[in-house]
Specification:
Strand order of the largest sheet: 16-15-14-17-18-20-19
Structural class: alpha/beta
Largest sheet: 7 strands, mixed
Low-confidence stretches: none
Helix content: 25-40%
Radius of gyration: 23 Å
Number of strands: 20
Distance between the termini: 65 Å
Number of helices: 9
């Protein structure tokens, strides 16, 4: 292995690296020996010179080093090939044969800043670190070798790249531009636009949760799917026998997609959609005395910073208060947060407070997380961003 530039850590800082985390912040660094360019590989050592890790360096990012390995190893094509092989094998083990799934999930697969989603024979790639961005041609070659996709798309049109000093891009890396299509995710076929502005097409992290929540639906139930996007929860509820699903979203293309999926599934006559602000709709529905047997709340992230957590919890409590008032005894609430700064215990405590204000007593029925193609590293809490709870009103 070639001699690498060295990043030396401050002695006085309780480094998260020692607890298994994969990030080194600039504020944790004592000095940098050598002149690494952004995206280069560096070695991390403590102030006594003991080697700790090897990772990507980026002077422009608050996360100055993203760990690739804790043992001496050449960071070359063979290294990335082995990591990709291991990531793909894990998906074959946990979601075998699925046409739509996440193949690579950044830090959770020890490939920091690389996301690869599979939609049939099309791969959608995101590089959110300078190190991965610099190696995108190599990674593309490896994905072609390992998976032989028809097309590889680049979906680097996300604001987080600015934090790494990277421009936004969107386009085709290999193969012909794919057309919009029908894509089976879970048990439902959805309209799939490969250059959809929402993530890389469909919210794959909820794929298993759609079926998990549908198991609580009884024949004839009236179900609310709030913040529905393409209607994953609502359409699976209809497949489970729901009498009617009310789907709510603020994006017109999401509502159109839900309608199209319902038509393909033969249940469009039982789907009622509303385009608008969920806070306003829930308030109006509560005041109008609307009632449901199942309510699903799956909002976007309410906070991306620690300082905004208190405000996010107030927003969460508002929608939960309204939702719980629309559920009677035996009713089911399935609720999710994708804000990784809001912990599972804090989120559940907020739900309990909302239930008390609504005069409802709840029983916990299930604890949910991201689908298994989105693995979690306990030492890296940011990988466990999605948390969900299914609760039943008992009084």
């Amino acid at each position: 292995m070639d001699t690498l530039p060295v990043v030396t850590l401050l002695r006085s800082v309780p480094h998260r690296l020692f607890r298994g985390h994969q990030w080194v912040y600039g504020s944790e660094i004592h000095r940098v020996h050598g002149t690494p360019a952004d995206g280069d590989v560096v070695e991390v050592r403590d102030e006594d010179g003991h080697p700790l890790a090897i990772g990507f360096y980026n002077s422009r990012s608050k996360i100055t080093v993203r760990v690739l390995s804790r043992v001496p190893v050449a960071i070359d094509a063979a290294f990335f090939r082995a990591r990709l092989v291991r990531a793909i094998a894990h998906r074959e083990a946990v979601l075998p044969g699925r046409p739509a799934r996440r193949l690579v999930s950044s830090e959770a697969d020890l490939l920091p800043g690389l996301i690869v989603d599979q939609y049939g024979d099309v791969l959608s790639v995101q590089a959110t670190s300078a190190g991965m961005d610099a190696r995108l041609p190599l990674l593309t070659d490896l994905l072609v070798e390992l998976l032989a996709p028809t097309t590889i798309l680049e979906r680097d049109d996300l604001p987080v790249r600015a934090l790494e000093g990277l421009p936004q891009r969107r386009g085709v890396l290999r193969g012909p531009p794919p057309a919009a299509a029908r894509m089976r995710v879970g048990a439902v076929e959805f309209p799939w636009n490969p250059l959809d502005a929402h993530k890389t097409g469909v919210y794959l992290d909820q794929q298993e949760n759609w079926a998990a929540v549908a198991r609580f639906v009884r024949p004839g139930d009236r179900v609310l799917d709030a913040f529905c996007h393409l209607g994953g929860f609502g359409l699976h509820a209809l497949a489970a026998g729901a009498g009617r699903v009310v789907a709510l979203d603020s994006a017109a293309d999401a509502i159109d997609g839900a309608h199209q999926a319902a038509e393909w599934a033969g249940c469009a006559d039982r789907l009622e959609t509303h385009l608008g602000n969920a806070f306003d709709w829930l308030r109006a529905a509560d005041e109008a005395g609307e009632r449901f047997q199942v309510v699903v709340l799956d909002p976007p992230s309410f906070t991306r910073t620690k300082v905004a957590v208190a405000g996010a919890l107030r927003g969460y409590k508002e929608i939960h208060l309204r939702a719980l008032r629309m559920l009677g005894p035996g009713g089911v609430l399935a609720t999710f947060s994708c804000s990784h700064h809001v912990s599972g215990p804090a989120f559940l405590e907020m739900v309990v407070e909302a239930a008390a204000d609504a005069g409802r007593s709840l029983r916990l029925e299930a604890v949910l997380g991201a689908s298994p193609d989105h693995p979690v590293l306990p030492a890296v809490p940011e990988t466990e961003y999605l948390k969900g709870f299914v609760l039943r009103v008992v009084e």
